[in-house]
């Protein structure tokens, strides 16, 4: 059986890390695409040259030609610009919307059967635009943010409780922005929900609130430290987890920016929700019940995403 083909659209910080991870994990052959000449070719060759040392059986190719992504099983999109200190994700909207148009058309014309994972910010609006420009089925176009935001939450919680990150589960819902909704009630340490851990005296509500806020600010914390760009190791690892769930039909229950039509009281929009990812792409949106406070936070987040989608429509008249 032929190896799966993984096309990475954007060969910057995240794109290069994705290529390395996909190769080391032998997920398939990798095509790295970028508009900048030389960069995708150089990164692909560099990773390929690590193959003998790592023992990798995968082909890597760098390209500036969309024809090379033909027949890709998975496309992961990071094309565009990242934030600099002081910028919000929303500041990237105008420039990255134009990039989504070019990328969406490139995927539509060359890899229409792919499972497409968008990472470009502002995430929820860009995945919506990418789906519109590509015309692919909604269940095959998804945004990566929830896995990353939840991973950040899990990391901070594991430090607070002094336990392995593997024993911490966490759920972050809503848009990937300042209004994201870390759900304490659905987050656990060894299966014990966070509110119960507060009651048991293992942590305080104040500490938990601070961790929730640090999770919301997780992207900005890294931007502030790096100064020249945004996070790339954890975002790449998170998208690889989603790609693996699709390629191996794992039926993973992962938070993702998915098309929600019916669940959680929403009628047709992209936003971060719990999903099941398998060979069919987004096979299910899990319709979890929120309490009044959680619903209020989720509604605020949904409104913020709607605002960005409307802004996209104002910029590009072909979007309706
Ligand atoms: P960066 O290292 O700048 O890479 C972006 C690449 O896109 C560059 O190599 C560009 O040459 C390339 N590019 C620009 N325009 C096009 C085009 N039209 N076609 C193909 N390639 C193009 O950025 P990065 O890899 O650090 O980040 C990429 C994106 O991911 C940014 O928008 C970030 O804001 C976003 N991001 C999202 C998350 C989420 O959790 C959703 C996390 C971190 C970064």
UniProtKB/TrEMBL annotation:
Per its UniProt record, what InterPro entries does this chain match?
Answer: L-lactate/malate_DH, Lactate/malate_DH_C, Lactate/malate_DH_N, Lactate_DH/Glyco_Ohase_4_C, Malate_DH_type3, NAD(P)-bd_dom_sf
List the molecular function annotations (GO) for this entry: L-malate dehydrogenase (NAD+) activity
Which positions in this protein are listed as binding substrate?
83, 89, 121, 152
SUPFAM superfamilies noted in UniProt = LDH C-terminal domain-like, NAD(P)-binding Rossmann-fold domains
Q: What Pfam families does this protein's entry cite?
A: Ldh_1_C, Ldh_1_N
Enzyme kind, highest EC tier:
oxidoreductase
Q: What is this protein called?
A: Malate dehydrogenase
Which taxonomic lineage does the organism of this UniProt entry have? Bacteria, Pseudomonadati, Pseudomonadota, Alphaproteobacteria, Rhodobacterales
Q: What gene makes this protein? A: mdh
């Amino acid at each position: 059986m032929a190896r799966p083909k993984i096309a990475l659209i954007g060969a910057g910080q995240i794109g290069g890390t994705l290529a390395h991870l996909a190769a080391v994990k032998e997920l398939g052959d990798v095509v790295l695409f970028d508009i900048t000449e030389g960069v995708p070719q150089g990164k692909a060759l560099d990773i390929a040259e690590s193959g003998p040392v790592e023992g990798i059986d995968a082909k890597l190719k760098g390209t500036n030609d969309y024809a090379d992504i033909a027949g890709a099983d998975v496309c992961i999109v990071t094309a565009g610009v990242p934030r600099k200190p002081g910028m919000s994700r929303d500041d990237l909207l105008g420039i990255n919307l134009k990039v989504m148009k070019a990328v969406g058309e490139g995927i539509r014309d060359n890899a229409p059967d792919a499972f497409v994972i968008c990472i470009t910010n502002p995430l929820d609006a860009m995945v919506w635009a990418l789906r519109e420009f590509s015309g692919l089925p909604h269940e095959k176009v998804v945004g990566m943010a929830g896995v990353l935001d939840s991973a950040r939450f899990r990391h901070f919680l594991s430090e607070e409780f002094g336990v392995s990150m593997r024993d911490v589960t966490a759920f972050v819902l809503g848009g990937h922005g300042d209004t994201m909704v870390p759900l304490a009630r659905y987050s656990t340490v060894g299966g014990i929900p966070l509110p119960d851990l507060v009651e048991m005296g293992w942590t305080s509500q104040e500490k938990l609130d601070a961790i929730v806020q640090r999770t919301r600010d997780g992207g900005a914390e890294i931007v502030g430290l790096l100064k020249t760009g945004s996070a790339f190791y954890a975002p790449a690892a998170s998208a690889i987890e989603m790609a693996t769930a699709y390629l191996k039909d794992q039926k993973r229950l992962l938070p993702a920016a998915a098309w929600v039509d019916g669940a959680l009281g929403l009628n047709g929009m992209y936003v971060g929700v719990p999903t099941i990812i398998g060979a069919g792409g987004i096979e299910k949106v899990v319709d979890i019940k929120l309490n009044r406070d959680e619903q209020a936070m989720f509604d605020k987040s949904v409104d913020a995403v709607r605002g960005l989608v409307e802004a996209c429509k104002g910029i590009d008249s072909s979007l309706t």
